[in-house]
């Protein structure tokens, strides 16, 4: 049984280990930031968990980066 366990762990690439570590850190971040915050922008006020606000901002930044890269390529 120990041989099967070693061979399975040996088959995991360094990239997969990094992905696993980042996933664990992301899950810990979400559990640590479940408190609600209020965001005010112009006349809009939104109350949401901190992790969700940060996720939305990350996605908006990512989309902006993708759109800027497309514009540079053309």
UniProtKB/TrEMBL annotation:
It comes from the Bacteria. Residues 33-69 form the Lipopolysaccharide assembly protein A domain. It comes from Nocardia xishanensis. The chain crosses the membrane at residues 12-31, 51-69. Keywords: Cell membrane, Membrane, Transmembrane, Transmembrane helix. InterPro entries: LapA_dom. This is LapA family protein. The lineage of its organism: Bacteria, Bacillati, Actinomycetota, Actinomycetes, Mycobacteriales.
């Amino acid at each position: 049984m120990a041989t099967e366990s070693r061979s399975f762990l040996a088959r995991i690439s360094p990239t997969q280990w990094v992905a696993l570590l980042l996933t664990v850190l992301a899950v810990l971040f979400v559990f640590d930031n479940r408190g609600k915050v209020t965001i005010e922008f112009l006349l809009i006020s939104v109350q949401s968990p901190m992790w969700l606000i940060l996720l939305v901002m990350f996605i908006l930044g990512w989309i902006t980066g993708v759109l800027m890269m497309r514009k540079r390529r053309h």
